[in-house]
Amino acid sequence: MDLARRELDPGIHDYAGLYAYSIEHPRQFWRAVWDFCGVVGKPGVTVVEGFDRLPGARWFPEARLNFAENLLRFRDDHPALVFRAETGQSEQYSYRELYAAVAKAAAALRGAGIEPGDRVAGFLPNLPEAVIAMLAASSIGAIWSSCSPDFGVDGVVQRFGQIRPRVLFCAAAHPYNGKQHDDLGKVREIVQAIDSIEHVVVVPYLAEDPRIDEIPNAVTYAAFTDNDAQDMDFERLPFDHPLYILYSSGTTGAPKCITHGAGGTLLQHLKELVLHINLRRQDRLCYFTTTGWMMWNWMLSGLAVGATLVLYDGSPFHPGPEALFDLVDDERVTMLGVGAKAITAWEKAGLVPRESHRLNSLVTLLSTGSPLAPTGFDYVYREIKQNLCLSSIAGGTDIVSCFLSGCPVLPVYRGELQCAGLGMDVRVLREDGSEADVEETGELCCGSPFPAMPVGFWGDDNDEKYHAAYFETFPGFWAHGDTIRKTGNGGYVIEGRSDATLNQGVVRIGTAEIYRQVEALDEVIESICVGQEWEDDVRVVLFVKLREGLSLDELTETRIRKAIRDNTTPRHVPEKIIQVGDI
User: Fold this and answer.
1) Cβ atoms of 527 and 542 closer than 8 Å
2) By the 8 A CB rule, do 270 and 280 touch?
3) Residue 170 main-chain phi, psi, to 5 deg
4) Is 502 exposed, middle or buried (0-12, 13-18, 19+ CB in 10 A)?
5) Secondary structure element (H or E) that encloses residue 512, with its range
6) Measured between alpha carbons, how far is 41 from 24 in angstroms, rounded to an integer?
7) Across the chain, what does the average pLDDT equal?
8) pLDDT tens digits along 191-242
9) Three-class SS state of 4
10) pTM of the full predicted structure?
11) Could you give the CA distance from residue 369 to residue 395 in angstroms, rounded to a whole number?
């Protein structure tokens, strides 16, 4: 804000002023982000072409940069990666050691004939080798795509089969919840199904001598990277050169292959990490994520700030629900990120970290993945730590970043996301396309282009699927697929996914509204709600997982129905409540 007030507009005094400037003057704002965050590369003169087209704008059309060069700008002894597994296994890389490891991996990929635009895939746990392989691929200008090893073979083939990678990095096995899971059996089937894979590189995780004989063209990671490379050439490419391919969950048909550009991803991530969560060099950032969730890609950009990334692999509840808080104390984590469900699960488990752990280092708790209920906010400040910034953030795979974010200079209001992200022209629209009033629920939309928009969907040559996914519902706006409302505090509340909205008796019901009430009950561990076509209408069916030893008797069912009716509307009350063993 000081920089913006001094060099852009003397009237900028608070977040609201800075946000307004970022929307009204996007060229000056995004160029200021480039300079303030010290992006390595040449920006060129033009910031954006065709800003009046959504979609169709081109950001920094003359720029040349390399994503990996930005993440490897530091080459000193400051810790870059700290790895911990649920098994107790640990490893650490300084920035100097990380650069050296990436140089060897990049030389190996070049030796395998990998060029800009080729795809390199990872079927990997959250290991240092996953980070190294991604950086090595992007240093060349290759495109990285990853799935976590909890995916089934069909799920991996549906994704990687579309993008036809030339190299596949994988691990021999991975741990979860006290058990060791073999991955090489799946890899063998994946390689048989995808004939583009020329090299399989196996990290001997949990297996010192992995059996790779039955996998065509397989070598160990050590053998693949056995070279004398000490330095590397970073391919500086256009701003929108593809960097990542991520995947929609795909409710119908094959998952969409969402392709993100290097420059837009870097600029957006730096804006969010440096400004919205206040990440600095001395921070230690740990986001509990797999390599198949966009938060993994988001977290890795913290290397461009010079911070230390704490990678955790395994179950966050093994050997007990306190596992991540043990990690916070052991590794002095300053910023911890989790899915909202983890916070609910901690509360259900009766965890009181403020009594059992020091948590002296922890200053920020990030939550995303699903809406965090107001009771979740209460739990964090009551039982974890009072002097903490709890930032509920929301965006998605579609933009590999956030529309709604945290802010270190704004208050946290119970149940609310703090603000719209800088440069993100967030609107709440009614079904007819008009703007909703404050406290009125509508569709989360964006009214202006932004750098982190996908460069397209892989294989969607005419951009038909891309256009249909975001721009058909509200022409001239990006429609994100979330139902939200803006509050009187200037924050936002997410009611749920638009495609999870149930239309019962022509009344729109957000499933998140039901979950908030049901999962606040002590008896309920987890729930899921669906709409079922029934007698020319839609009825709401609620499945509940109860605490061990409990059954869905009449009293419990009445408590659930009453909680929903009292706190939402009678229309939200499910017609059927069914107990299930697990969800």
Assistant:
1) yes
2) no
3) -150, 175
4) buried
5) helix 511-518
6) 26
7) 94
8) 999 999 999 999 999 988 888 999 999 999 999 999 999 999 999 999 999 9
9) helix
10) 0.90
11) 9
pLDDT digits (tens, 9 = 90+) for 336-370: 999 998 998 999 999 999 999 999 999 999 999 88
Question: Which of 130-139, 148-157, 181-190 is least confident?
Answer: 148-157
So what's the pLDDT on residue 583?
87
Place of tokens 């069909």: 154
Contact criterion met (CB below 8 Å) for 341 and 370: yes
CA angle, 455 then 271 then 250, to 5°: 40
In 3D space, the residue among 442, 398, 446 whose CA is nearest the CA of residue 422 turns out to be 446
Q: Where are the alpha helices (DSSP H) in 143-293?
A: 153-163, 184-193, 221-224, 262-270
Ranges of H-type helices in 231-373: 262-270, 294-300, 323-331, 340-348, 353-356
Contacts of 201 (CB under 8 A, 6+ apart): 133, 167, 168, 169, 170, 218, 219, 220, 221, 224
Measure the CA–CA gap between 21 and 84, rounded to whole angstroms: 42
Per-residue model confidence as pLDDT tens digits over 422-441: 999 999 999 999 999 999 99
Whole-number Å distance between alpha carbons of 369 and 559: 27
**344 Cβ partners below 8 Å, 6+ apart?**
373, 376, 519
Enumerate residues 6+ apart whose C-beta is below 8 A from 42.
62, 63, 64, 65, 236
